[in-house]
Write a structure and sequence with these properties.
Length: 167
């Protein structure tokens, strides 16, 4: 290996160049395939992201994304494309079915609510039947009034009769 600073040839045994002191280990890592550059990180992140997206169709996609081989990356890309097509087909079906379901619910909900209310009323223990219910307008007057209230017109008419007889 040659030192990039001074150009001296050196073996891989030294961490630093004996002539100028440049860190040869950092340069060796940058040149090797194991180094994680920003492009390699983006590549790996995209594979993981597409694999997570394709997971609902291809269950083993995230596991295969961990293998850093070129063939696996192409396979993950293909799975992502197939998953997108599958989702597009499902979207078009749901685009037609959801409004239809909405209108059915809109029409059927009041009927179902009345039916459930009737069923709950019949199945509830201890409630009287509809015919046994006492409504307020049918309640006896004695129950609501403790004593009779004098009429306002009684006193005024008595007073008028007395005044008219004096004249």
């Amino acid at each position: 290996m040659f030192c990039p600073s001074c150009g001296r040839e050196d073996s891989h045994e030294h961490k630093f160049c004996p002539s100028c002191g440049t860190n040869l280990k950092a340069i060796l890592q940058a040149l090797s395939d194991n180094a994680e550059g920003s492009f390699a990180k983006v590549d790996k992140s995209l594979d993981k992201f597409i694999a997570r997206y394709a997971e609902h169709v291809f269950k083993d996609a995230p596991v295969k994304a961990l293998e850093q081989r070129v063939g696996r990356s192409w396979k993950i890309l293909g799975q992502g494309i197939l998953t997108s097509l599958f989702d597009l087909a499902l979207f078009s079906i749901m685009f037609m079915l959801l409004p239809f379901r909405f209108f059915i619910l809109l029409i059927r909900t009041p009927i179902r609510l009345l039916s459930e209310r009737n069923r709950n009323r019949k199945n509830a223990p201890g409630l009287p039947e509809d015919r046994d219910l006492v409504y307020l307008n049918e309640a006896p007057a004695e129950r609501w009034q403790m004593r009779p209230v004098a009429s306002v017109t009684e006193h005024t008419t008595v007073g008028l009769a007395q005044k008219s007889s004096k004249r």
